[in-house]
Specification:
By secondary structure, the protein is an alpha/beta fold. The protein contains 14 helices and 18 strands.
């Protein structure tokens, strides 16, 4: 019988163990820690699993990171752009319309005054589309927010709740909209206006440091759970081992966790089957010259370009590519419905058309990869299903944490916070 079993050595699971300090064991299916916060290296180039930038505000997390990696981070001011109407404008769209066609800028300002200030909806928004119109106006919704988010989430904003966006989508004021229409921005806004990034090793350096601070004989790699009996508090693994536990902490994707629990009620299984998510197919592209655009990432809302976002690790951390070179990542959201035949050739054409690539000859090599669980979809079913599942798990002493364990949209910092909160709860239960 183990006191606390942790499934998954991603940021949430590692944080749980780090803050528990004792009486825990981690079981990880891969042979390395980090989950999706890892870095791959090839021919002198380094690639994270697309953009992973650290935005730290929680004092406890900041102290932990400083202890683990003293003086180990670069401080970076965000450089992010949007490509639309044939031009680049700074992110966020709603406060940076300078450079767009004058007719478009005028329409955006008039729409904000009409839809937000003079005729705001009487009811609180129930959908993400209603939320955007209420706080930004119909023109911003139609020219950026709806097409970009439909591309990202593969769901129209009218069919999504606004639960996820309160922190991550900045609401503009009239003054900000006018200022952003008259001149380039004087500063950056939004939760990700600046970030930190490891001075070496890519984002994978953080979970590596977290794992190194733990007792190595308590982290079991290449151990995949195959069955959980919540009533008996017992887990079976692919190597044939079966162990009991007092506390179970899981950062597995919520639907995958429920599949493992043999005694989960039918209602819980039905709720889990209704949860929607998107995958991300992406290309890592090694360049034999620096990236053409200076941005860390670019949003592309228009339908004529297939990918929704592209970015460059080497623009934020030059060591991520050999000297004089650069790299890119390009992302497509899908639900197993993407045609990959000729996709990289189409990607190159779109990179050339958008001015992010000067010539096909600039490409040294590329890799195609896929993230199976990338974005949780906040559809009309979301709140009811997740509420039912988490309530049943809590009744059975199972804590499901992290972005995919909680089934939410959050940052790396939030995953670490989930871990220390789980540790606090377990320590409190031990004392009671």
């Amino acid at each position: 019988m183990r006191d606390t079993v942790i499934l998954g050595a991603g940021l949430a699971g590692l944080s749980t163990a780090y803050h528990l300090k004792s009486d825990w064991e981690i079981f990880e299916k891969n042979n390395y820690p980090g989950g999706l916060a890892v870095t791959h290296h090839k021919n002198g180039y380094s690639f994270d699993l697309t953009g992973h930038w650290l935005h730290l505000r929680d004092p406890k997390v900041m102290r932990m990171v400083e202890r683990l990696m003293p003086d180990g981070f670069l401080s970076v001011v965000r450089q992010s752009e949007i490509f639309s109407h044939g031009v680049y404008t700074p992110y966020p769209f709603q406060t940076n319309t300078y450079g767009l066609p004058v007719k478009v800028v005028s329409e955006i300002i008039q729409s904000y005054v009409s839809d937000v200030l003079l005729n705001p909806p009487a009811k609180e928004p129930r959908t993400f589309e209603e939320w955007v119109i209420k706080y930004m106006g119909r023109s911003i919704a139609e020219r950026f927010m709806i097409p970009y988010n439909e591309k990202l989430w593969r769901t129209h904003p009218r069919d999504m709740t606004p639960l996820w966006c309160q922190i991550y989508v900045p609401k503009p004021t009239l003054q900000q909209i006018i200022d952003g229409a008259l001149a380039p921005p004087a500063d950056t806004i939004g939760y990700n206006a600046s970030f930190i990034y490891p001075k070496a090793g890519g984002i994978g350096a953080l979970p590596q440091a977290m794992a190194a601070a733990l007792k190595q004989d308590r982290i079991h790699y290449e151990c995949t759970p195959t069955r959980i009996d919540a009533g008996k508090k017992c887990i079976e693994f692919s190597n044939g081992e079966s162990i009991g536990y007092r506390n179970l902490v899981s950062s597995l994707p919520l639907p995958e966790l429920i599949k493992l629990v043999s005694d989960a009620p039918a209602a819980v299984r039905r709720a889990a089957s209704k949860l929607l998510h998107n995958q991300v197919l992406y290309f890592n592209i090694a360049l034999n010259k620096p990236a053409l655009r200076p941005s860390h990432w670019v949003y592309l809302p228009e339908a004529q370009i297939g990918f929704y976002r592209a970015g460059s690790f080497s623009n934020a951390a030059p060591y991520m590519a050999p000297e004089g070179c650069g790299n890119l990542y390009v992302e497509y959201s899908h639900r197993n419905d993407i045609d990959t035949r000729g996709l990289f050739d189409r990607t190159l054409r779109d990179l050339l058309a958008s001015g992010m690539l000067e010539s096909k000859k600039d490409v040294e090599f590329y890799e195609q990869r896929n993230i199976e669980y990338a974005y949780v979809v906040f559809d009309a079913n979301y709140r009811r299903s997740t509420g039912l599942i988490h309530a049943w798990l809590a009744e059975n002493g199972i804590r499901s944490i992290g972005r995919y364990g909680r089934w939410t949209y959050n940052s790396m910092e939030t995953a670490i916070i989930d871990g220390y909160r789980a540790a606090d709860e377990i320590r409190a239960s031990r004392r009671s």
